[in-house]
């Protein structure tokens, strides 16, 4: 027998109640008490699901936006620019920005697609803690579950420091945080918490391993409080940090026994325990139920693992997930439309709870392996050995750039998507329900495309996009048109705040079926003489934003996707597209947590992008987009992608990547984001001009202003037209102001924009818009 516990659960609600409540509050339709009550109900639904499954120690997960932001607020370490705010106004301003107070930077949590808000800790920062929200959650959890079952959870001090933006030494940051963490432990102990989960996933990284002195000092001080600590160190094996982390003075230590999704490596955590032993005074949390995979776990293999751990000296065991279950959809029983025979092989968060409880009770179901039977193909890595020529463009960058469309200084564009209005969402729902047929749907979508093209022409943007009104999600749109991928109706996973995605499930070999974007491109390009970008999601991003197979390496799956998308690039090019954007925002999030494993991943990830895009002719401009990750330490692989234009998220990160690219000798075209698309604040022209001048000050592309693109941080689907139009208008005005300094006064709209090979423009009336 073992204890069953959780270390996190979806914070969305089974029917996305959290999203509805949050967006209603932001629109002013509901009050703050309404929001608080709605989120309390979401919390309690999740806790009841865990209790009903038989879990004994239930982590009290829950957040209005992000768990790292929760600790910024609770510790009282908001940056000074927010000092005039308090309460939820302060909380959401840090997440979304406010006038004269830009939001906190946003980055990916370790190697996941979950976005967290980056704490800013300046020299002299002084915590002013307020733990009332954490204490209230515990009080509610105890009332529902009982005192012995309700376990508070939060980000630990070492991880909080390592996730922060700061120039201070890690030891100094942790030391300043410790009195507040100790105060919190005392308060939780006083109201009867059976233990407290402190999540320290950063200990599995190289930086975490190097923070040994800070971590040891921190946990010695926190242990002295006397409140039992459950340290959660997941998302990878601990590697060289294992010997000293295992000796920290905590009651329980939970480790990840599953590793990276789609990886085929041996169980590294088990090997560490075999080599170093396990301290007899600690409970070992066995993260053997895969919290990052929707495939059902082999409970027989988990049972064998638990038995071996007992022989290695781990007499006190707890069964849990490998990482927080927040990365999974809620419940597979909500998916009646899955292909016959697939559902029994799947396990979402609720099903993972059942596996945890069964394994803890010694009743694991033998042989319940996930990706097997008729749902996988027969391709193996050996079949992915392709000729090197397939990965290389026909000419080098300088030779091909002269053949590509030419633009004036500071050319303007957007990243791809435009607002997904209620009208657009209603069209998709009507198609899905059968209320309208596909020809009618496409005609109405074409009206949305015409609207987007007309607005961009009116704003005098140089390179246009069709707006992506037909797309629900970057990965889903393509996966639904490829073979080998399966989709859910309600399999939502939180990406950040109220932004949810439905990751595809890779259930077989992936292959191209038909052109996926050509029709919409041709509709858009027929409406304008200006160039319209073809818009694709890259193979690495589709892979990292999907639930991969467990029987095939990620490299092989990435190459399958690349070969399929390669055919789409060729199809766009054949349709007259001169600019193809292949987005790879998830390139870095698949990066292993330990530097020693980087080269292997980056080699096949960059190759997958090149395999996808090398089919483009020298005269076709290839663009890619990267966002919301720390890319500064992988400059060479980014340059090796050999894109003609790189657009990046930048407005929250202080031009750090622009400077890194300049230092790395980057010479291709670059589009650093000039304003934050996740904030409702409309940027002023003067602020945008100043931002553009900061790019020039870095020395990037010195003397080549025609290579410095002006664009937002990311896509605009989450914004409203009332925000998008003035923001883009100001962006164009800023670009034209600097363009006039370089080239003299403009001679008219679209000055310098190259002609395209597309058909002549037709009126919006001809497109059915009017």
From TrEMBL:
The keyword Transit peptide does not apply. Pfam families: Meth_synt_1, Meth_synt_2. Binds 2 Zn(2+) ions per subunit. Residues 4-311 form the Cobalamin-independent methionine synthase MetE N-terminal domain. Keywords: Amino-acid biosynthesis, Metal-binding, Methionine biosynthesis, Methyltransferase, Transferase, Zinc. Its EC number is 2.1.1.14. Residues 410-736 form the Cobalamin-independent methionine synthase MetE C-terminal/archaeal domain. L-methionine binds at residues 415-417, 468, 583. Belongs to the vitamin-B12 independent methionine synthase family. This is 5-methyltetrahydropteroyltriglutamate--homocysteine S-methyltransferase. It comes from Monoraphidium neglectum.
